[in-house]
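User: Now give one protein:

AI:
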Amino acid sequence: MTPIDEFELRRELAAAEPTVGTSAQNLGASAIKRGKAVQRRRTGVAVVATLALVAGGVGLASQFLPNRDVQPAEPLPQVTVSPSTTPTAAESTDVAPPPEQTVPQTDPAMEPVTADPTSPGAVDAPPPVPTWTSVTKLPGEFGDMGGLAPLHWQAPPEGDTEAWTVGDEYTIPCGSGPLEIPALGSVTAGKTTGALGPESFSVESVLVFTDQDAAISFMQQLEAAAKACVDAGPAEPTQADEYSPIIQTNRAIKWVPDLGDYALAYTSWDRGKIEATDENYVDFPNGSISLWVRTGNVVAMADTSGEFVGNPMNNPEALDWLMPAIDHVFKG
């Protein structure tokens, strides 16, 4: 049985029904009846705390206000409590609505307002990043390089070598004309520079593509186009005049391991004969080598030409001469 303190007992005796008389037996029976009602009321209070506090506050105020007669307490209304349930993910208040959802309007007649794209306050989408349009030429100076540049970009003359200048006209050569690389259309930025020496010509280029896949496509197309040029055989022999040797240009493409994500070396060298009646061509001192290295969506190229005899790839120093320009791009 739940214990009752002295003040509560006094309150219950004061609220006893007046019709039961004043005998101890009648008063006890009335108090027990009141106690059971209070016990039931306490149970209701425990379930709905807010409602019990409001109702109990009013009842207590009426009983303890000064100069007021004590009135019998009114029974509390019956309250039905629904069993609690665990909210689902959709019902949980901790889950924020996706950005695409809007807050429901309080007035059903209101419709969501959509901005008019032609109105002065409309926000325009950012313009697309421009891309290079030539499929045969490397860009001399195009787009936002983000700080990348060839090693000798705008470098002054060195010795007998002319100053490095923007090389808008550089193409990837083949016997029948420049190689066509459609993936050049995915270049978003590029710089190419060249310098002419008394017996050599050097070129450096950096190309930034829209993404890594575009850069991979460029290297694949470069390799395929160069290989087709090589498979077509040496170019038709040429002769500058009747006193010059007959020259035939040969080409080769080779994969270079352990350099960037992928690397290729594209070479050319001349063979010739002094007289048209000579039976065989022999190596002449003229050749070039270009090294193409891809890392991510960036491709760097360094090219040099000079008095190479035979395929420059057979010269162990040829790649060493080009590596500073490559390292400058990818290693800083």
